[in-house]
Amino acid sequence: MKFQSLVIVTFLFFGLSKIKAQTYELGKVTIAELEEKIHPKDSAAVASVLFSKGVVSIGDHGNQENIVKKRIKIYKKEGYNWATIQVGVPAGKANQISITDVYTYNLIDGKIVKSKLKPEGEFLDKINSNYWIKKITFPDVKEGSVIEYQIKNYAGSLYIQDWNFQEDIPVNYTEFKTTVPNSFQFKRMIKGLFTPKVTTDIAKTYGYPATETTYILKDLPALKEEVFVNNVNNYRSGILHELETISIPGQLYKTISSNWEAVAKTIYEFENFGPELRKESYFEDDLKLILKDKVNPDDKIKVILDYVKSKIKWNNTYGYGCEKGVRKAYKEKSGNCADVNFILTAMLRAAGLEADPVLISTRSNGIAFFPNTNAFNYVITGVETPSGRVLLDATDPFSTVNILPLRDLNWIGRLIRKNETSEEIDLMPQKISDHIVSMSYEIIEKGEIKGKVRRQYSNYNAFNFRNTFLNETEEAYLDKFENENNKIELSEYKRTNQNELLLPISETFSFAGSNFSEIIGGQIYISPMLFFLKEKNPFKQEKREYPVDFGFPFLEKYTISIKIPDNYTVENLPQSAVVSTEDGSGTFKFSTAFSENQIQMTIVHQMNEVIIPIEKYEGLKEFYKIILAKQSEKIVLKRI
Predict the structure, then answer these.
(1) Which residues of 225-255 are buried (b: 16+ CB within 10 A; e: fewer)?
(2) Bridge partner list, 245
(3) Is residue 18 very low, low, confident or very high in pLDDT (cuts 50, 70, 90)?
């Protein structure tokens, strides 16, 4: 019996070891991996990274080899997009990057079946003259498949590519290793909520002093999207490097990156930056015409901004350096953001205004963690006026003074002057954007509603409204509005100031509907805000991972007048209330009054702060819970 027990224990030990065994090398897919139906720690996951390994090896002359190895498990059809790999390469240099060991593994009749990449599964997409994409589509992918691949990149530049530990799906194991000669010093930035285990050793396989550093993380959850987030990638766990110094004893010592001032100076000296700003002759005659009788600085700014917006179309290409050059862009009436805004800057300068380019990193590009020339991907214009500095961006038809496209609103930028000095610029809006609603309606005895609305938007709310409906007909807009709001019927619709960008845009309409009230036991129940009622709290998570970013400070105000039927009176009327967040960043006022057969309501919701830090999330969540509950309270009418 003792011997039998020992055999059983030994069998269980080796059996469990076999099940739990996990290899982090390509070609060693296990039956256990293929049999796994759901991720053990995230049953909703459509796929997971079983392992990812990155290796960067830099030679003593700066040449380097980059290797990425990855194995992915597909659980659901929604995870099939993970079976397509895209890698960007410089145009004409596709041979610098090789994608190999591309295999799909499936479990068929208890056996592992391995499918290799088919010729039709490999593509080269020549996006433009500067950038190509290598694309791989895995064969025979189905629910339960495991895929794996390797990418090798041979580069001649001293650049360590950013490494993401965290993905949009769970990551079981991730490892990143760098081998760097001691003559090259890199700044290092570990970002995100998870800190890797770091080990450092002397590299023994090289004929020169070098340091090998390994970073390891296990069991990382999927990076989840949350509402009101600037760019979720800002919070993705990863590691960034930036070359700081080159120090070769007896030969060379050079500082590569020091501070933002030095970075700005370097960029200004680029051929497609500073020299392009100094060109003016191509627009001189046109400028004289548009500035005729314009003396006031504000008038000059407006007319030049409007002219550039109408004259030069943005081609949707980013970059802080000119793509075509200002002369060619002006002639062809299109260019990238630098072409467009450099023309704007140069014309403002020629008009006698103090205008300078402002380097920014757009929301999609993320926050710049290091002073480096790659931190920026866009440029706008700053102008000094008697009332203070204003910011302009001529790439959007609806932008105005200090009303920039939302892509620009990413914390801070850097203004560069003619003398190559620079200054940090706050990009976040300070002025309140209003959404003002005036609504009056009457309740008919059978519970039907008839009324009128006047709705007004200012600043960023107006900007968003104009852009949202730029390519939508009025008929399509009204159909959508009716279908999304209990089949309400709209009539007498009118929109004003659609193209008067310095004025609030407004819309008025009449409406009728029968689905906004309930009649129970002879009493009428109605939510007074009707189709303006927001039924869901945007902040539902128990725990918030990222700061809340509203984009701009705003005020919502509803003035509501309700006429009740002559043979009814008010049984229940929501009580007036005033609520604010603990720090005063948000306020909510709700007031009601009843006289004769009229109910008057005023509802005001204002947020003065754009960014709400994580530590204030619970208070914000409770604040919105109170707002939603108060706005959802029903008026109850009873028959007299």
Answers:
(1) ebebbbbebbbbbbbbbbbbbbeeeeeeeee
(2) 185, 255
(3) very low
Contacts of 386 (CB under 8 A, 6+ apart): 297
In a 13 Å sphere around the CA of 8, the CA atoms on its Cβ side amount to 5
* Spatial separation of the C-alpha atoms in residues 462 and 468, rounded to whole Å: 10
Number of other CB atoms surrounding residue 23 within 10 Å = 13
CB contact at 8 A, 539 and 556: no
How large is the average pLDDT for residues 551-573?
A: 96
Whether residue 160 contacts residue 213, with contact meaning beta carbons closer than 8 Å, is answered with no
Cβ pair 241, 213 in contact under 8 A? no
Residue 640 pLDDT level (bands cut at 50, 70, 90): confident
- Characterise 583 by phi-psi region: left (phi > 0), alpha (psi -120 to 50), beta (else): alpha
- Decide: 366 and 286 in contact? Cβ < 8 Å: no
**If pLDDT is split at 50, 70 and 90, which confidence band does 222 have?**
very high
Q: What is the rounded distance in angstroms from the CA atom of residue 287 to the CA atom of residue 293?
A: 12
Q: What is the DSSP letter of 610?
A: S
What one-letter code names the amino acid at 209? P
Q: What is the pLDDT of residues 422-463, one digit of tens each?
A: 999 999 999 999 999 999 999 997 889 999 999 999 999 999
- Round to whole Å and give the CA distance between 379 and 373: 13
What gap in Å lies between CA 436 and CA 554, rounded to an integer? Answer: 11
Residue corresponding to tokens 């290092």: 188
- Helices and strands, number each (H, E), in the chain: 11, 36
**Neighbouring-strand partners of residue 582:** none
The residues near 512 (Cβ < 8 Å, ≥ 6 apart) are: 448, 449, 450, 451, 488, 489, 491
315 neighbors 335 (Cβ within 8 angstroms): yes
Calculate the alpha carbon distances from 422 to 264, 269, 381, 428 in Å: 7, 13, 13, 19
- Average pLDDT of the residues of the chain: 92
In angstroms, how far is CA 201 from the centroid of its own chain?
Answer: 38
> Contact 392/365 with Cβ under 8 angstroms?
no
